[in-house]
Amino acid sequence: MSELSEVSDGLYERLRGFVGRAAATAELGKDPVNLPMIRHWCEAMGDAHPAYRGPEAVAPPTMLQAWTMGGLSGHSGRSSAHEELFALLDGAGYTSVVATDCEQEYPRPLRPGDEITFDTVIESVSPRKTTKLGSGHFITTRTDVRAGGELAGTHRFRILKYAPAARPPKPEPGPEPPPRAASGAVTEAVTGAVARPAPKRPRPVVNRDNAGFWEGVAEHRLLIQRCGACAALRFPWLPGCADCGSREWDTVEASGAGTVFSYVVMHHPPFPAFDPPYAVGLVELAEGVRMVSNVVGVPYDKVRIGMPVRLEFLRVDEELELPVFRAGGED
């Protein structure tokens, strides 16, 4: 549906009619804020900050949405506005949905024992937008979370409800490609001209907080930060210690030994310079910290949790070298 036709048939005006309507009013959180959930969250996130432990504990601010979730059984007191809005979009052909971003504000910390109530409102519906995924409307909902009647946090969640763009037809099978030069370009001797080189992997973002890590990689050293006050190790690199808050630090060099703590197999989306499926592992180093990297030297479907791995450095192009982990563990 074109933007002009949306205007002519009044669809956008009907969509705008949902702005300001409540999706939930004075909904009660299923559980009070509690230490077991805080502990599970911190373990999953690897956050050992002392503020989240002990008799004076507070909940991590980014747990805000966790206290409003309905679980598998959902919530029973929701209004019909959200479902009506989605039904209208579905009927107009915007049948797919993707989350785009969220924003949170924390006026006061939540503490164990706090009873949660929350209100959700449809805050905005954008005009029709065209993206690489397809054309659709951005829907923003705002949830205000209260404890004892006092505002404790605001959560804005934005999604795109869209009609998927048509995929280009697959090319017909052709003859085998000519041989390639070492750089990835088609050889001039075969084609008479040098073709476009193979796409490169995305470059890492190097800033003042992690430059030392990448300097170590260039020297084939995997460096871990060590707090100068409490000696806690941390990875990825951060400007301050999550345990004690100190900004003083030095580094230790990892031995290179590790095990696969968890992993995923990437099938989609396709991305230039990557050839799915491939395994991406969360590797627990012998020093106790964890890092994300590729697991190589074994088929993607043979990667297993607990598998021993050993650090090596992989040159992916003439400019970029990355730390990866080869299955097998021992040299």
Word description of this protein:
With 331 residues, this protein is of the alpha+beta class. Helix content is 14%, strand content 33%. The strands form three sheets. Strands 1, 2, 3, 4, 5 and 6 form a six-stranded antiparallel β-sheet that branches. The chain has a five-stranded mixed barrel with strand order 10-11-12-14-13. Strands 8-7-9 form a three-stranded antiparallel β-sheet, with helices on one face.
How many beta-strand runs?
14
**End-to-end distance:** 60 Å
Q: What is the percent of helical residues?
A: 10-25%
Percentage beta strand? 25-35%
Write the layout of secondary structure elements.
Elements: H1 3-9, H2 11-16, E1 22-28, H3 35-45, H4 81-91, E2 96-105, E3 116-125, E4 129-130, E5 134-147, E6 150-164, H5 188-191, H6 211-218, E7 223-227, E8 233-234, E9 249-253, E10 257-266, E11 278-285, E12 290-296, E13 308-315, E14 321-327
Parallel strand pairs: 12-14
Antiparallel strand pairs: 1-3, 2-6, 3-5, 4-5, 5-6, 7-8, 7-9, 10-11, 10-13, 11-12, 13-14
